[in-house]
Amino acid sequence: MALRSDWSQRNCSMARGLDILGDPWGMLVLREVFFGNGRFDAMKSRLGAADSVLTKRLAALVDAGLLTRSPYDDGGRTRQEYVLTEMGEDALPVLNAVVIWAEKHLPAPSEQAHMFVVHTGCGARTTSADSCTECGERLTARNTSWHSLTRTPDPVPLAATYASPGPSAKAPSQNGPAL
Predict the structure, then answer these.
(1) What confidence score (pLDDT) does residue 8 get?
(2) What sign does the dihedral 61-45-104-166 (CA atoms) show?
(3) Alpha carbon distances (Å) from 150 to 14, 39, 57, 88, 102
(4) What is the pLDDT of residue 42?
(5) pLDDT tens for residues 105-161?
(6) How far is CA 144 from the centre of its chain?
(7) Per-residue pLDDT tens for 22-58?
(8) Closest by alpha carbon to 179, among 22, 42, 39?
(9) Is residue 165 exposed (0-12), middle (13-18) or buried (19+ Cβ within 10 Å)?
(10) Is the distance from CB of 57 to CB of 24 less than 8 angstroms?
(11) pTM recorded for the entire structure
């Protein structure tokens, strides 16, 4: 990732992982793709990011193998939508852990500023990043929802890899107002 020092060849696996997942904008881009907002304009609107910032983060996530581009027709020309790869989908526990940690340790600025990880299999909120604390099932993008109170009154099923069509086809307006 050319946005800062290159840690990709470090001896420490945490350093190599942070080389890709340690950028806040990159993590927020992944959040949007998991929420089904894989189109540039939807992400830009939701994140409030400058074109240059978003373009660099998307390119870095594609180069790292977490996202891939998928063409779609907007009615006038072909554009690219960003979708998760298997590698990107495997980052889900990392994003879940950040959400769960923040909910536990950081004060929310309002009653609506909360986000929860929900296992759709049993419907329970979980306090574990990789398995449901209610039933023990392993969490995946296909059986996990995020419930962001600022987005929607109901949990949103997560988008999965390109091979499995998911909510990435949703209109951006279904996921609520910006950050």
Answers:
(1) 74
(2) negative
(3) 32, 20, 24, 24, 16
(4) 95
(5) 999 999 999 999 999 999 999 999 999 999 999 999 999 999 999 999 999 999 998
(6) 12
(7) 999 999 999 999 999 999 999 999 999 999 999 999 9
(8) 42
(9) exposed
(10) no
(11) 0.86
Type of residue found at 40 = F
Query: And the tokens for 53?
Result: 């910032």
Start-to-end CA span in the chain (Å): 25
- The residue count of the chain comes to 179
19/44: higher pLDDT: 44
HEC readout, the chain: CCCCCCCCCCCCHHHHHHHHHCCHHHHHHHHHHHCCCCEHHHHHHHHCCCHHHHHHHHHHHHHHCCEEEEEEECCCCEEEEEEECHHHHCCHHHHHHHHHHHHHHCCCCCCCCCEEEEECCCCEECCCCCECCCCCCECCCCCEEEEECCCCCCCEECCCCCCCCCHHHCCHHHHCCCC
* Backbone angles phi and psi of 79, in degrees to 5: -120, 175
Single-letter amino acid code for the residue at 17 = G
- What is the model's pLDDT at position 162? 65
